[in-house]
Every structure is written in C-alpha cells, then in structure tokens.
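[Automated response] Your request has been received and processed.

Submitted sequence:
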Amino acid sequence: MPVYEFRPSAPWLTRLSSGDVAVLRLLVGGRTYGEIAEEMGVSTSAARARVAGLVAKMGVRDRSQAVAEAYQSGFVQPGDATPW
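Generated structure:
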C-alpha cells in the first residue's frame, strides 16, 4: 500500500481558485468532461478548458497526473467520500 504524505507546501496549492478546487474535486471523483460540464453548467469545450487551466496551474502533464498529485500531496486521502 502506498504511503501518502501531506505536503502543504505543494506549490500548486496556492495557485488554485475555488473554481479550480471544484474542478479537481470532480476529476478526483472520476467525472468525464461531459459530466464536469453538466455539473458546472458550461459547455464540454469550456469544461475541457477549465481542466486544461487546472493542469497548467498544478504544473502537471494531464488530468490523470492532476488526480495523482492531489493524492500524493495529501490534498485528498484514499477513501475520502467528500475530499472538501
């Protein structure tokens, strides 16, 4: 079992807006672009743009790496029903 270490100094934490946190929450929940769009009340292309912006702010490669970084930083813990 991997060990998750909380890194409150993860640089991306200070760059996220509340909207970014909402997008990350949806990604961690396994939502598709279409589901993110529906929950946020935007188009699918706008949801893709929001995810791309989040990925850029976090300094990661893609949405999967954003989710992995959320766990590795301790921002989300395995088994959390509602991480925020």
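Summary generated for your ticket: The longest helix spans residues 44-58. DSSP finds four helices and no strands in the chain.
If you did not submit this request, please reply to this message.
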